[in-house]
Amino acid sequence: MRVAIVTSGRFHVLDLARELFNLGHQVRFYSYVPRNRAERFGLPRECHHPLLPYVWPLVALQQRGPSRLKEKADTLLQRAIDRLACRLVKSCEVFIGMSGLCVQSALAARKRFGAKVFIERGSRHILSQKEILENIPVAPGAKQPCVSVFNMQRELAGYELADVIVVPSLHAQESFVERGVAKEKVFRNPYGVDLAMFLPTPVPQTNPATILFVGAWSLQKGCDVLAEAWRSLPDTRLMHVGPAGDAVLPRHPNFVHHDAVPQWELKEFFGQAHVFAIASRQEGLSLVQAQALACGLPLVCTTRTGGEDLREFVPDPDQITVVPPDDSTALANALRQALGKVRAGSGLRDNLGNAREKLSWRGYGERYDACLRQRVSPLTGFRSAET
Questions:
Q1: 212 and 180 within one domain
Q2: Cis ω for the linkage preceding 317 (within 30 of 0)
Q3: Mean pLDDT over residues 302-322, rounded?
Q4: Rounded CA separation 308/236 (Å)
């Protein structure tokens, strides 16, 4: 099939573009990701259709401009990419666009080419997300996380026009069904991992035992809850890799912070840790969870991280412990048990074994390919597929 993919950054859809190309589809990837960076992640040159020459001033303002202008730049950039895609996207049977970004372009692809519209939503339904963010406890005078009216309206417009809404986890799928979206309209496909980059690691023989979290240190990621749980675990170290967000970084000799690093450097940190923990209050499916599992770490997560969906890809589901969000006691107990199991072991940690390929990006692409072949047919038109 001829497949158009429209996005701003790389996200998971660059991996999707590469895998669909490898499966024989004609893929055009429209993004402001530079060609050399896209090729570094395996995207063939012929698939890359650059948007950066058209929008680089807005990208620069969004990424490096003063904070007071970043939200405005983000709004302008979304509109610009959507309008550009209306003009640049060529004939296709399938249009895959990021939610909140692709509205006019998705409609244009349907009207001009008869394309089926797949909207990629990496998190819960926008109204569920809005509700969760508005109920996060914040310190007096601190900014409450929220969803802008602009983003909410564009998200809802995308859901309405989509033939298929693609989400990475069951909890995200359920949030759409709870708000009246037909279950057969929502395709659940958990993200994959680069198995060549993330390999099994030996159990660290260092003290103290180390809990690792990778991502923004933020309230949305539940880092305040993670820090509270960690404080109840004596003689443990908490290591963070990623940017500092709106949660307070602990001041403690056993808390170690590292700024964000390129993806290919993360394996060094996975090799130093005994357990990977993520306490998010809401997100679709955190990619670092699959990376940690591929490196052999047990995973402790909440019901709103997508970690529970990864149990179907590991021979031993007990390697993944799931607790409710906002429950530091349950999180601490789960971490204590996971650390006890790891510390009792030694040698190479291999969580995936013979099932390793199921968690790969190729496996992710094959599931997507099967959905396309069921739902997009020039002879039979739209057909429901299993979700």
A1: no
A2: no
A3: 95
A4: 25
355 and 366 within one domain: no
Q: Is 255 left (phi over 0), alpha (psi -120 to 50) or beta?
A: beta
The model carries a pTM of 0.92
Longest dimension (CA), the chain: 65
| Residues 363/352, Cβ–Cβ less than 8 Å | no
19-266-349 Cα angle (round to 5):
90
- As given in the structure block, the two tokens for residue 34 are 């530079």
Taking CA 213 as the corner, what is the angle to CA 323 and CA 176, rounded to the nearest 5 degrees? 50
| Strand pairing report for 236-241 and 299-302 | unpaired
In a shared domain, residues 278 and 187: no
What number is the average pLDDT over the span 296-309? 96
Question: Which amino acid makes up residue 315?
Answer: P
Residue 233 sits in which domain range?
Answer: 201-359
Percent above pLDDT 70 for the chain: 97
32: Cα separation from own chain's centroid:
19
